[in-house]
Amino acid sequence: MVDVRGVHKNFGPLEVLRGVDLQVRTGEVTVVLGPSGSGKSTLLRSINHLEKLNRGYVSIDGELIGYRRSGSKLHELKEREVLKQRLHIGFVFQNFNLFPHLTVVENIIEAPVSALRRPRKAAVEQAERLLERVGLADKAAAYPRQLSGGQQQRVAI
Ligand SMILES: Nc1ncnc2c1ncn2[C@@H]1O[C@H](COP(=O)(O)OP(=O)(O)OP(=O)(O)O)[C@@H](O)[C@H]1O
Ligand SMILES: [Mg+2]
Description:
Elements: E1 2-11, E2 14-24, H1 40-47, E3 55-60, E4 63-64, E5 67-70, E6 73-76, H2 79-86, H3 104-114, H4 120-133, H5 149-156
Antiparallel strand pairs: 1-2, 1-3, 3-4, 5-6
Helix pairs in contact: 3-4
This protein binds adenosine-5'-triphosphate and magnesium ion.
């Protein structure tokens, strides 16, 4: 399902990923383990093309991510096309990226309403169902700073 081939990534002179190969099958759970600063987040960010690769490629379910192939060359996709691909890739940021000035429920409906153009009322109902599932039904109107770390993480998920 996830196929990472020969991925290289450097930030200036700092080589972070040096030819990473990783295959994850459907339904498989994979843990990437390593010291702080060793490149775990960079690898994950490379998988949904939040980082440009210096070499190698990533494909998900047979579809090249962030690039299209023409002959032996890879051309980077337009941001709009990458955004479409990302709609199918779940991703939880290491820092939760919640908007501090929005409540829990407003944070959750932001993407469905702004990006997917879903009706606000339906998005709120879905958000409330999801909050119920993760034990946060009573926190819908709270702001991120009023939540514990684990609660903020569940809102982000
Ligand atoms: N945008 C960037 N510009 C320059 N250097 C970066 C950038 N992002 C990450 N790095 C560097 O790349 C290396 C890998 O960072 P990364 O965030 O992938 O580590 P990590 O394995 O996720 O660490 P942690 O366990 O602390 O989350 C670090 O040395 C970091 O300083
Ligand atoms: Mg990290």
